[in-house]
Specification:
Elements (H helix, E strand, L loop, with lengths): L10 H13 L1 E2 L2 E2 L4 H14 L3 E5 L5 H12 L5 E6 L12 E5 L5 H7 L9 E5 L5 H14 L5 E4 L16 H12 L4 E3 L1 H4 L13 E4 L1
GO molecular function: methyltransferase activity
Protein name: CmcI family methyltransferase
GO biological process, one term: methylation
Amino acid sequence: MVRSFKTPYTRPQLGAYFKGVMQYHYRDVMCNKSPLDIALFLHLIHAAKPATYIEIGTKFGGSALLMRDIAKMYDMDMKIVTIDRSPPEVDSRFDGIQFVQGNVMDMEGTWARNNLFDLPRPWLICEDSAHTYDACMGVLRFFQEHLHKGEYLVMEDGILAELDLGDKFDGGPSRALEEFLDNNPGVYEIDTSYCDMFGINATTNPNGYLRKL
């Protein structure tokens, strides 16, 4: 069995914390990243040195903007690609970011139409789109075939279940992770060095930092 998805937060703490996350902006653009997960991404990008960061679910582009600036800070030549059904209108702040129109429910088609299979390796994938069970399971299955050993997939917002929002997403990321990892041992490893850096699953992405085996 996959280990517990329980976070160390009390329900009142979690509600207040998540409210702050949903209000968080980066450079005046909605970003919705928790402070702990920003710290974890800083560490992961420095350690894994991905050549391409691929984000599924753009929203307003704040997260992609943050990751581009992190790469600049580290003086890394990291390509930034962000995918959404309806990419936002952007300005010069977003220079260097590739915005792709695509659908999480058609990953193979999205990758093929936009020549994403040719993106430089290693990859760091951030799944932050619909958060539904079907979408998350589709992403896990797609990258089972297309990630290389040692590359990372971060499954965002498994914490929705603890916020009593799991039913809204048919179980969401946590259900997809639990079922996939239980039924497909040897595909991904939960990297607890990230999930547990600030306490066991002290992240909005419990058990969501995955390394391809």
